[in-house]
Amino acid sequence: MAVSGISLLITLGIYVAIAVVVFVAFTILRDTKLTRRFFAPKTYTPGIEHPPKIRGGLGAWVPQVIRMSEAEVIRCAGIDAALYIKILRMGLEMFLIISFLVLAIILPINCTGSEVNSLMSDPNNGNSNLAENPLAWFAQPSPPPPPGTPAAPEEKSGDDPASNIVTVPDFYDTDIPPAPPGMTWWKYKDDVPPLPTPEEALNNASYARYGWRWDASYQEIKYEFTDLDKTTMSNISSRSPSLWAHAVVTWVVSLIMYFWLWKYNKEALRLRIFYLLNQPPGAMSHTVLVQDIPAIAYGTIPHRADGTLLKLIPKSIKDKAFQQTAMLTKRVKSGVKSAGSAAVGTTGVTKLAGDSAEADADNAAAAQALSSSLVKIDATTGRWEMRDEWAAAVNEIDSTGTVAAMVEQEFRRIYGDTLSHVHMCHKTDKLDPLVAEYERTHQAATDLLDNYISLKRRGKEMKPKKVTVIGAKMGEWGKTKYGLKPKKVEALEFYCDRLTELRRLVLAEQEAARSPDNLYPSAFVTFKRRVSQVVASRTMMSEDLSTWSVQPAPGAEELVWGNLGWRSWERTGRVIAMWALFWVMAAFFMIPVTAVQGIISANSFLDFLNDIPIAGAMITGILPGLALKIFLAIVPIILAIMNKFAGAVSVAQIDLGVVYEFFIFQVITVFLGSFIAGTFANQLDQFINDPGSIITIFGTSAPQTAIFFLTYLLLAALPQASLNLLRLVPLIIFWVKSKFLAGTERAKARLWQDQKLTYGTLIPNDTIAILLGMTFCVVCPIIAPVAVIYFAHNYVVWKYQHVYVYKGAYQSGGMAWTRVFDQCMTGLVCFHLMMVALLGIKEMVVPSILCAILWLFDVTVWVTVHKRFYRPHECLSLISAADIDNREAAALGAATEFSAGKSAASVDEEVDRRYISPSFKFDEPAHEQVLSEAARMQAVLAGGEDEKLFAEPSQELEYNDDIESGRVTASRVDESSPALAGEPAPAGSASAQELQLEVPDREKSATSPIAKA
């Protein structure tokens, strides 16, 4: 069903109304007492950078957000947020210029064309409609009417999906003898009367010498056009000189894109280098992640096989098949030598029985001649063997005693005294569930204490609460203490007992996890200088690429610790499996996408809605795009799971992988799937009957499909962006929980604090908008201003969200830009492909060739940008790293110390805190704190008194929403009062004490004793 102009206007009106309602609701709710923290959590969360106060009345936040500087965005949200805002600004600037260009030049040309009117009045390019043919009555089913009494042809049922195609019936008898030589003839079927002559049928003597017969291949095409199609390239006839303007504007738009992409490549690189230069001295700026460490059995093929049915294979066979791992069974030098000898024996030169001593002497002489102080040739085999990293590592372990010492020795041999420390990674799959249960139990105990305190302060009765426990789920301890059946016990007593038992289990499992048998083949290696970190992260440590893989260390808080145990062979296999699943999923999603296009194109069953404008707008303008959005909603979640499965070691790697893959997925489904299905759905029957007509169908119907993408982009530009601002579903959940479920201030604070944001969905949606706007800006000029609306609206919405609401789930320092540029270039290639195809179909050879030349420019720009900008994105240059090292050392007068004046001991302490799995961190004081307060509370519940426990804070923090600076401060509070909300400020922060949120002695109990990395 083609989208009409009135349907588009109604759709636009509905979307604008939704946007206005959401804007007003947001403006009111962000100043309402209940929801102000939900809509601006970073204003009220202690221990972080607070955004500037928004002043003014209704809508005053919009101009203040727009005027907010890049520095303010970086201060409040980080480099990734600043880069994302620049991406939106780039799209806005580009499409503002493109809109002016295409609306001023292309739109008038398209609107003044006549092709749509011509096709609507005569869709068969000058051939009379079959229904208007004076011989049309011959096309009726038998028995035919008597000659001379033509009857109007019977109309096909509207329920027939092929009603847009009228095909001539079969009139001729094919079972006839051959015609005389040099002639052809035909015979009508018995139930078909002979055709009258042209002179008789047309009643015109000038046709006296004409003859005719039915064209069996004839098909009448009935196009579906609306007045909106007159704004597209469909309205330009073939070989029209006006098409030269389309080619010229294509060139101008392309040059604009090249210029803007180059400009923002420089901006992205500036932000990236700013991020790298401002990395504080410490773990991340001086540490690399080393994977595939040799001489560790974990992750090898035999180790994995032992965990599967392959463990049934006899050990002797597995040892023979996997000699490298067999070396690990006996870490003695003789064993290494034996393994090395066996390896050489399998590939060496076998001596023949008749070899002479003279030949041996010649071989030895040749080997000696080729040998040097650096390279030795084996005199016996005459071969030089590459270094065996596994054998060398096993040998080194024999000398040093531990794997960690071996890794340290390898790096110290390369980097000398600049090496600071090595931290091995451990398998914690048994420890992690215990830690997770401890955290849940600790939080439940803390919430219960807060609830009791809240009841007491409000003068309400405190009754001991009970919980139902099932001892069978808690091992032998639970079975012994509570039995096998469900049992109701006093909640606080249970939490204390369970925390005590879990502490014992956690500490015991921590010791077990630190054993050599649980070592992962990964380690974090920290250097004293940035230069060493840069060199280590960007150079090849070994020719054997299956060992010693080195990369910059991700932030400790974003690590996926469980993925550090996978070796290169397993990561490769998982990546292959992930991409296979990706293409299967893309093919599967093509089914609903094609179905949506087929349903909205086969409009015969919707004809009755044409007289209801709003219904028509819903069917043609809103539902198709909405259905597509719904289908795509779950895809980023699936892709994130797939990336984690593929071996990504950090949240940043997972999310940036989603940025890359979700764009490809949308190109396949949203762009190609919808475009192909929408182009051919109306003429599917004709395409099946006459595949050769594909070019004609594409040339006429492809520009019409641009209208669908216009409505799709309009949906994302107005209602979707507005609802992103309101966050309707999280708002409802927040309201319900804060009203009925969150009984304490700390529980309520958890509902609005720490809102996390990733870019796996955001960036692909923006780049697909760039692709759609760019590809169709000349074909359908009105899509360009819709793209302007999209980027302008999202610019305001997401700038506010980044500054006032969300915290980044990670900080990659702008690494997403390289993917953004590649996706924009993909849009340019699609744009040029579209114009080459359409101009070629319109029989404009030279303009089509001119547009094809732009592909050479695409390749040139793409390659040039990669060479010019991509390497600086990867890491600091050696010059910059050395300069920072020297300046930091000189500032403290200690050039031999670790940068920023830290000693090696302080570095080790920092790395110990950062690059150790959170499962190994246990806060004993916090554990004792909650047990102590629980014991005091139990005494109170038993009838005792404890004034200190329930005393109001001496100087309790109250949120002052009218503070001019927009910051939240608090004085010190009574050391015995419990924490009610918030979290402690970062250690070492200059304003840590000032920003504490009612956190006295119990400040550590505000979060789990098992600290997060």
Provide structural commentary:
With 1013 residues, this protein is mainly alpha-helical. Among the domains are: 417 residues, no CATH class; 102 residues, no CATH class. Helix content is 56%, strand content 5%. The protein is built from 38 helices and 10 strands. 39% of the residues are buried. It is a multi-pass membrane protein. Belongs to the CSC1 (TC 1.A.17) family. Its main location: membrane. One of its GO terms (molecular function) is calcium-activated cation channel activity.
Structural class by helix and strand composition: mainly alpha
H/I helix tally: 38
Poorly predicted segments: 123-130, 140-166, 331-353, 954-1008
Assembly status? single chain
Overall outline: globular
Binned, the helix content reads 55-70%
**Distance linking N and C termini:** 55 Å
Strand order of the largest sheet: 4-7-3-8
What proportion of the residues form beta strands (DSSP E)?
A: under 5%
Describe the sheet with the most strands: 4 strands, antiparallel
GO molecular function, one term: calcium-activated cation channel activity
Subcellular location: Membrane
Biased composition (Low complexity): 976-992
InterPro entries: Csc1-like, CSC1/OSCA1-like_7TM, CSC1/OSCA1-like_cyt, CSC1/OSCA1-like_N
